[in-house]
What does this fold into?
Amino acid sequence: MKTLRTQVGIVGAGPAGLMLSHLLHLAGVESIVIEDRSRKYIEERIRAGVLEQGTVDLMKETGVGGRLSREGLPHHGFNISFSGQRHRIDMMGLTGKCITVYAQHEVIKDLVHARVDAGGQILFEVGNVTLRDVDSASPVICFEKDGEPCEIVCDFIGGCDGFHGVCRSSIPAEALALYERVYPYAWLGILAEAAPSSEELVYTYHDRGFALFSMRSPQVTRLYLQCRRDEDLAEWPDDRIWDEILLRSRTSDGWAPNRGPILQKGITDMRSFVVEPMQYGRLFLAGDAAHIVPPTGAKGMNLAIADVAVLSRAIAAFYRGKGEGLLRSYSQTCLRRVWNVQRFSWWMTSMLHRSEADNPFDHRRQIAELDYVTSSHAAMTSLAENYAGLPLD
Ligand code: RFL
Ligand code: PHB
It folds into this structure.
């Protein structure tokens, strides 16, 4: 058995785990990150694309925003489209804030690079991860690396291993309350080699279902379509995907996404999920391990980063001799923001999607709501404020 010792053991090298390790390092606290996938896999996994202003500011302030500043696409507004008309929400004009389009796997590359450069330890391709003595002062992470049993003995564990990880399930069920909503639809997402035909995102409500136009670079468009939960990708040859995207997205002024070769496609289910509290003993859950939002508000990664900003501060205060106060309030501090973001993500989702259970009343109600949020200054300000992101604390 190989035994490693560190201050904070972190399970999962997603945005939450890597940013936690980075922030702790800047505060003079040591950590080791373990990850069950390879470095190449996590650096290429296609996921989120929208960074809130607070996430961008944190990356820049902590020295990992160089490439983001050069390659990220700042967006001052976005569009909501329905009944064939696009309506621009002027986020910058309404709130003084903007969002930046920069792929999640680029954030991962920047964080891995920063940790490796600073001599930080990230152990990739570990297996059989379990936690022990989580409610003691010396919790232990057990795992296998290259066939050899290993353990990390630490003071705290960062449970940053995503929705399907092992950390949340290491907590006794009776110590947690779960809140969940599963939506009756999913998203079919594609990356296409096509120049984006709009500089800003377009969220479309259509009789045939939701569509989202986004991008990754001046050459690559990212698109999503509402589909069935049990949708079979095999039934979606490229031409059918393009026909459906164009049918839903085209506006009466002739705007439509540009077509191009499809580079990647996948289906994402839609879920709202929160676990309370986000802590058990010396185990602190952060990011998707503690909560999931449907992707319509573009919030999941931003919420993961916000959690670890709070957690790193609490752990740093503990080592500076300031006691356990911030650690004790970690869950409560995060959950306030988490529920705000849950509300916004649920609201965006229910406003923009069609459900089989909907009747003509719901359809007209949704159109009225879309009309309101794209014409009332007060409603647009609320939408823009939430989309650009609430303050980190
Ligand atoms: P992650 O990214 O899932 O990272 C968890 C890591 O833990 C590893 N792991 C383990 N490691 C060791 N031992 C184990 N037993 C382990 N089990 C798992 C995993 O391999 C992984 O590397 O969680 P984290 O860090 O909390 O980050 C959350 C975000 O990834 C997620 O919320 C976002 O991707 C959600 N999301 C979006 N968020 C945004 O902020 N803006 C967006 O525009 C946005 N768009 C999206 C999205 C998610 C999507 N999908 C694919 C779910 C669009 C889509 C389509
Ligand atoms: C993306 O570009 O992947 C994206 C953008 C906005 C969302 C979700 C995903 O709401």
In short: The first strand starts at residue 2 and ends at 5.
